[in-house]
Amino acid sequence: MSDKAKKKGKSSKKRGGMGAKGVFFLVILCITGVIFMPTSILLIVGMLPSLVALFVSGTGRGSRASTVAAMNIAGCVPFVFKLWSGENDFASSIAIITDVQAVTVMYTAAAFGYMIDWLVTGLVSSFLYQKGVARMKAIKERQKVLIENWGEEVAGKKAQKKGDTTAQKAYD
Questions:
Q1: Domain ranges, ordered by start, for the chain
Q2: Which contacts of 134-139 are long-range, i.e. CB under 8 A and separated by 24 or more positions?
Q3: CA dihedral in degrees (127, 133, 135, 137; nearest 10)?
């Protein structure tokens, strides 16, 4: 096997595992989940749209997952406070989860997160497109001024018209 193939094989392999920090975080998360079981059950059910957004969005769209998660947690917080202010047990947690209005509020907040992501992405892409169009227009106007001052040779147009390919070779 050649050196290039060895290097390519090494670079194309993905790093596996979470690492020590990831394992530590997972252990702490599991311990706190067991200690605060009623709250954990409520948040697991309430934050399902955020988990879906995290897995569906892929690697390039972390903004979508974070936007949905932020709005989703905002929808879950009132019910977590309701659980904490009353009896913090399984029965209260299950009562909140089975309340259609509570789940609707939690999931509607996540839907607003999707809507915010969709709107902001559309606005930003539209702004960047318009900025690019304006930049292209400015470049063409500048090119006109240069052609007026220095002649057609600046743009490489006369060299191509005469059949000379040296100007074209300079760009290749």
A1: 36-171
A2: none
A3: -150
For 61-77, the pLDDT digits (tens) are 678 889 999 999 999 99
Token digits for 45? 């059910």
Reduce the DSSP state of residue 87 to 3 states and report it: coil
Which two three-digit tokens encode residue 114? 């999707």
* Spatial separation of the C-alpha atoms in residues 93 and 82, rounded to whole Å: 10
b/e per residue, 91-110, with b = 16+ CB within 10 A?
A: ebbeebbeeeebbebbbebb
- Contact by Cβ (8 Å): 109, 74: yes
- SS3 label, residue 118: helix
Q: How far apart are CA 19 and CA 21, in angstroms?
A: 6
Contact yes or no for 74/18 (Cβ under 8 A):
no
| Average of per-residue pLDDT across 118-130 | 93
pLDDT for residue 148: 86
Return all residues near 149 (Cβ < 8 A) that are at least 6 apart: none
